[in-house]
Automatic annotation (TrEMBL):
Its membrane topology: Multi-pass membrane protein
Predominant localisation class: membrane
Ranges where the CstA N-terminal domain occurs: 2-142, 154-279, 310-431
PANTHER family: CARBON STARVATION, INNER MEMBRANE PEPTIDE TRANSPORTER
Membrane-spanning parts: 79-97, 128-148, 154-171, 183-206, 226-244, 265-288, 319-340, 361-380, 386-408, 415-435, 447-468
Descriptive protein name: Carbon starvation protein A
Family to which the UniProt record says this protein belongs: Belongs to the peptide transporter carbon starvation (CstA) (TC 2.A.114) family.
UniProtKB keywords: Cell membrane, Membrane, Transmembrane, Transmembrane helix
Pfam families cross-referenced by the UniProt entry: CstA (PF02554)
Length: 472
């Protein structure tokens, strides 16, 4: 319990200290934002700050900080380290920079921003990469909530899939203030009740469960113990750093009324998600009395079943558990809808198609949702694994872009280090993972570890050669 509370405190302190440092290095100005310059009543709409924060939080807080946290908890309380320090030094920086770079560049999608600073080749790669990732995200966040709703109501999953898909169509098509800005505060309340309720249940010892203390030991259950590096860093995904967030931040950059609100909205939402992830990771280990019990629960009922058991176990079978489940369901739905919306905006930026007219929005929305509907019939676990890796690769690319931007645009000396260090780290993680994982090349660690390290060093050298060394 002590280390859990300490981890929670560090996350909060990190927002007020490191988050403030990153904001100061970036240097917000009083210049008008895209929301005020291009107010079109559809995508560019100035919104109250509290609404922008809740929308950003619910956009990014999909299944990652819940399902990903439970998967990461299989390695034991050591996952707390990655959630806390990943959120403060990587995820928060990533989300802040992706949002603020978009604010500075007319609310453009992440692919256009990367292309602007990294060249035409990276522009084309990022356009394709972003759309593919967003479709995978929309599919994952379509299937996940449908599974949970089927579990909660005992109805078949197919009607729920169709209902979620129809909602996604409306959220993708309608102006941002018609559905998203109206209903997200309600979903946010459910999410907060869920987090507070489960954390309270753990801290007060409901059910006699004892919270384990944080340690560096690898507690992955079974005879074949999976290594922490790099598997845990990919599995947790959204709860520490997520490239998907970079596709969502531009949506809110088109609604932000003042650059100085970037830290509470972008960095703050990531810290809030880190807190949610920390609670769920702790809940998984605590409620099932260790990693072996958690693994058995995940095998028996899947992550949706484990979530249901945790909610009812800590909050009872009544209204509290129902609200907690609704909060968990709202997380993926409020990320899936904006995933397809972001895919529409990415394609619109790519092909320079104005999105004010309804028929022009339909041009992109219908094919995107149709592809998502087809992919929803695939094995959820397979889609999730590929989503997790592509997600972290995108985070790596965005961090490198942020480092280039900070070097080129910011007056503060060595401001680029706040992005360069986590970018190098994620370069090592993602390259090592794809070389080692089942869905990758399945090479032994004697090869993957040194090759991944060399790849990270090469990325760092390329960046320094193009910036610092070139100037020297």
């Amino acid at each position: 319990m002590i280390t859990f509370i300490a981890a929670l405190a560090i996350l909060i302190v990190g927002f007020f200290t490191y988050g403030k440092l990153v904001d100061k290095l970036f240097g917000p100005t009083d210049n008008p934002t895209p929301a005020t310059i291009h107010n079109d009543g559809v995508d560019y709409i100035p919104l109250p700050t509290w609404k922008v924060f809740f929308i950003q939080l619910l956009n990014i807080a999909g299944l990652g900080p819940i399902f990903g946290a439970l998967g990461g908890a299989l390695w034991g309380p050591c996952v707390y380290f990655w959630i806390v320090f990943g959120t403060i030094f990587a995820g928060g920086v990533h989300d802040y920079l992706s949002g603020m770079m978009s604010v500075r560049e007319d609310g453009h999608s992440v692919s256009e921003i990367v292309g602007h600073h990294m060249g035409s080749t990276m522009l084309m790669i990022m356009r394709v990469f972003s759309v593919v990732l967003l479709i995978l995200v929309g599919t994952v966040f379509m299937t996940g909530p449908a599974m949970l709703l089927a579990k909660l109501t005992a109805f078949p999953i197919l009607p729920w899939l169709l209902a979620v898909l129809f909602y996604y169509f409306l959220a993708t098509m309608l102006p941002v203030d018609k559905i998203i800005a109206r209903f997200y505060p309600l979903f946010g309340a459910c999410l907060l009740i869920m987090a507070i309720g489960i954390a309270g249940g753990m801290l007060t010892g409901v059910g006699g469960h004892v919270m384990p203390e944080m340690a560096l030991a690898n507690l992955y259950p079974g005879q074949t113990q999976l290594p922490i590096w790099p598997l845990m860093f990919i599995t947790v995904a959204c709860g520490a750093i997520s490239g998907f967030h970079a596709t969502q931040s531009p949506i809110m950059s088109r609604c932000l009324k003042d650059e100085r609100l970037g830290r509470p909205v972008f960095y703050g939402a990531m810290v809030a998600e880190g807190i949610i992830c920390l609670i769920w990771a702790a809940a998984g280990i605590t409620f099932f009395d260790g990693t072996e019990g958690l693994q058995a629960a995940l095998k028996a009922g899947g992550p949706g079943g484990a979530v249901y058991e945790i909610c009812t176990g800590f909050m009872g079978q009544g209204i509290g558990a129902m609200l907690a489940m609704l909060g968990v369901i709202a997380c993926p739905i409020t990320s899936g809808d904006t995933a397809f919306r972001s895919a529409r905006l990415t394609l619109a930026d790519w092909f320079h198609v104005d999105q004010v007219a309804t028929k022009k929005r339909l041009l992109f929305a219908i094919p995107l949702l149709a592809i998502g509907g087809v992919l929803s019939q695939m094995d959820f676990n397979v889609v999730w694994r590929y989503f997790s890796w592509t997600n972290q690769v995108l985070a790596m690319i965005v961090l490198w872009t942020g480092a280039v931007y900070l070097y080129q645009k910011c007056k503060a000396k060595k401001a680029w280090l706040v992005a360069c260090i986590p970018a190098t780290f994620m370069s090592v993680v993602t390259s090592t993972y794809i070389l080692q994982a089942k869905e990758g090349f399945q090479l032994p660690t004697t090869i993957t570890y040194p090759v991944g390290f060399v790849f990270g060093i090469c990325c760092l050298f390329i960046f320094l050669r193009a910036t610092v060394l070139k100037k020297a």
